[in-house]
């Protein structure tokens, strides 16, 4: 309890996270602050996936720049992807990146190292890790912010993992988002539940533990950090005449709202009929995702377009 009170005090007294300046991405003198809410509350209700229109084609062939914001797991690659799946995703991104009309971003909640392992060095393809707090524009250096208090939480989590060593808890190598997994055979057991209660006990209210039903996984992050803020900031630059965001879970919903605000495309990738979403379109699986994205490889005339430098 004492540790939690210390953390609450830390967040109350600490300054907000610094921002990221990049004139090419956000505009001259603009600063992207990942903890600043750029969307506010939703202005329209969610609907169930079964009621969302299936999207086989996207009318995205407008003059000018096109923003393509893609989640990774469950969108570019299936959950539990093998080497062939990863190679297929990389090949698709290579082709998308060759079209200079596309500005492609892989926007993930995961670590930069995991994104780099799959997609580093693809011309025209940019990486946004940890919900948009760690950025690597193609050909540029890493730009990131640091969210206060996360090192202290990680240290405490490491201690819990050691005490509950039978869980096999693995903490991912992230900076601003602390994610972990554990032995799936222990999901729902007394040991796992006790460890997770202890994790929750050390966290301040604004940095809760997010869990997914049926998954031996957890994510700890500041509630203000959302993929939505990053995508919204890109769109606010006014550089894009069209765009599409694709994701498969609740952490992608903000990207959909950002695209909807500009009347661009938002696509949920899901077969779960009762999953709630604010996406305007849906696809069933990764195969359908790749099929749709291949439409963006060529120009309206049908010719491949080279990536500009």
From TrEMBL:
Look up the signal peptide feature and give its range: none
Q: Which InterPro entries match?
A: Glyco_trans_20, HAD-like_sf, HAD_sf, Trehalose_PPase
Write down the Pfam families for this protein, in alphabetical order: Trehalose_PPase (PF02358)
Would you kindly state one Gene Ontology biological process term found in this protein's UniProt entry? trehalose biosynthetic process
GO molecular function annotation: alpha,alpha-trehalose-phosphate synthase (UDP-forming) activity; trehalose-phosphatase activity
| Domain of life the protein comes from | Eukaryota
Record's GO cellular component terms: alpha,alpha-trehalose-phosphate synthase complex (UDP-forming); cytosol
- Belongs to which family? In the N-terminal section; belongs to the glycosyltransferase 20 family.
In Swiss-Prot or TrEMBL terms, this protein is called Trehalose 6-phosphate phosphatase
From what organism does this protein derive?
Puccinia sorghi
Show the taxonomic lineage: Eukaryota, Fungi, Dikarya, Basidiomycota, Pucciniomycotina
């Amino acid at each position: 309890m004492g540790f939690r009170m210390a953390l609450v005090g830390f967040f109350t007294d600490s300054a907000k996270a610094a921002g990221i300046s990049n004139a090419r991405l956000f505009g001259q003198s603009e600063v992207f602050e990942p903890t600043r809410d750029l969307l506010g509350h939703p202005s329209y209700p969610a609907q169930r996936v079964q009621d969302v229109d299936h999207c086989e084609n996207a009318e995205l062939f407008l003059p000018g720049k096109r923003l393509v914001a893609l989640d990774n797991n469950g969108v570019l690659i299936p959950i539990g992807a093998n080497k062939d799946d990863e190679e297929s995703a990389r090949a698709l991104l290579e082709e998308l990146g060759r079209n200079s009309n596309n500005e492609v971003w892989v926007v993930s909640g995961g670590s930069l190292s995991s994104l780099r392992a799959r997609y580093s060095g693809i011309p025209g393809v940019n990486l946004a890790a940890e919900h948009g707090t760690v950025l690597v524009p193609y050909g540029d250096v890493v730009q990131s912010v640091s969210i206060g208090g996360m090192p202290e939480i990680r240290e405490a989590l490491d201690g819990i993992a050691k005490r509950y060593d039978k869980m096999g808890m693995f903490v991912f190598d992230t900076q601003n988002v602390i994610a972990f997994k554990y032995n799936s055979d222990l999901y729902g057991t007394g040991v796992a539940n006790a460890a997770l209660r202890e994790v929750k006990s050390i966290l301040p209210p604004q940095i809760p533990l997010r869990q997914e039903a049926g998954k031996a996984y957890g994510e700890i992050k500041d509630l203000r950090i959302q993929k939505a803020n990053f995508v919204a900031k890109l769109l606010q630059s006014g550089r894009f005449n069209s765009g599409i965001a694709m994701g498969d879970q609740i952490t992608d919903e903000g990207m959909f709202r950002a695209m909807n605000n500009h009347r661009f495309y938002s696509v949920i990738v899901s077969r779960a009929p009762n999953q709630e979403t604010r996406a305007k379109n849906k696809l069933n699986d990764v195969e359908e995702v790749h099929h749709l994205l291949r439409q963006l490889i060529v120009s309206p005339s049908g010719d491949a377009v080279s990536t500009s430098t």
